[in-house]
Amino acid sequence: MKPLPALELVTRLEDAEWLDPISKKVRKVVKRAIRPKWARDVLHGVPIGHPVHPLAVQVPMGAWISAAVLDALPGNDKASALLIGVGTGAAVPSAVAGFTDWTQLHPQQQRVGLVHAAANITATGLYAASLVARARGSRGGGKVLAYLGLAVVGAGGFLGGHLTYRQAAGVNHSEEIPHRFPSGWQPLAPLSELPDGKLHKIVVAEIPLLVYREGDAVSVLSDVCSHLSGPLHEGKIKGGRLQDRVNQNGGPGDGGDPCVVCPWHGSTFSLRTGEVQAGPATAKQPLFKTRTSGGMVEVCLPGAE
Ligand code: FES
C-alpha cells in the first residue's frame, strides 16, 4: 500500500534543522520552569513505569471528541461547552508532561515534537476561542471553532503517533533484550579478566551487556539504556557498593544503592535490581543473574535457566 503524502512531509520534518534554534529556546524555558528533579520524574512517569503524557491526553481528546458529537446534535449546547471546558483545562497538565519528555529527546525527535506541540497549543487556543464565542451567544461560531480545533489536534495526534511509533520516543528501548537473549547460562568472561570497580561492556549472543565487578560480586544489566539506547558502560557509577549489606527491608545499605548513570540524559539505574532511580527513563533495565563456575562468570536471564 502506498503511504499517504503526509507521511513524506512528516519524515522531512525530522531533518528540518531550521527548527533547532526554536527548540533550544523552548528547552531552556521548560527546564527553568520545571526544576525539581522529583517533579520531572513524576512528569516523565517514573512512578508508573511509562510516560504520563499519552495517558494524560486521553482526557482532553475524549472530552473534545465527545463535544464534537454533541455539537452535531441539537439541544446539547450546555453539555458541549462543559466538555470543551474540561478538555481545554486538562490539556494544560498533559502539555506540561509532554514538554518535560520532549526536553530529553534526540534533535530529530524534538523537531517533530515541536510541531506536534505547536499543533496542540493551536488546537487548545481554538477550543478556548470556541468557549468565548459560545459565552457571547455565537453558537454557530463556537461550533466552527471547535471543529477547527478538532482538525488541528488530529494533525497533532498524527505527529505524536509518528514521534512514538516511527521515531520510538517514549518507548522502552530494552524491551526486546529478554526475547533475544538465549535461555540457559551463558559464559561471560573469566572473573580475573573483569576490571574491578569499573563499568565494562561485553557482548554475549550479540547482546551488549553492562558488567560491573566489585571483588567477587558481579552485576550485569543490558547495556542499552531503556530511555533512548544510550551506552550505559560509558556512564558513571553513583551510590554505594555492590557488596554493602542491604538493610532490614531489603533496600540499599548505608552507602545507598549502587547505580549507573546514563551518559546521554542522566537516567539512573540500580546495579542491584535494574530499577529506575531517576528519569527520564521509565522502564527498568533487564537484569541478569550471575554465577561463577571454575573461575568463569556466567549470566542468565531470571527464569530462563
Ligand atoms: S539514553 Fe537517555 S537517559 Fe539513557
Automatic annotation (TrEMBL):
InterPro entries: Cholesterol_7-desaturase, DUF2231_TM, Rieske_2Fe-2S, Rieske_2Fe-2S_sf. Residues 186-299 form the Rieske domain. Keywords: 2Fe-2S, Iron, Iron-sulfur, Membrane, Metal-binding, Oxidoreductase, Transmembrane, Transmembrane helix. CDD domains: Rieske (cd03467). The keyword Repeat does not apply. The chain crosses the membrane at residues 80-100, 112-132, 144-165. The keyword Oxidoreductase applies. It holds the Pfam family DUF2231. PANTHER family: 3-KETOSTEROID-9-ALPHA-MONOOXYGENASE, OXYGENASE COMPONENT (PTHR21266:SF60), IRON-SULFUR DOMAIN CONTAINING PROTEIN (PTHR21266). This is Rieske domain-containing protein.
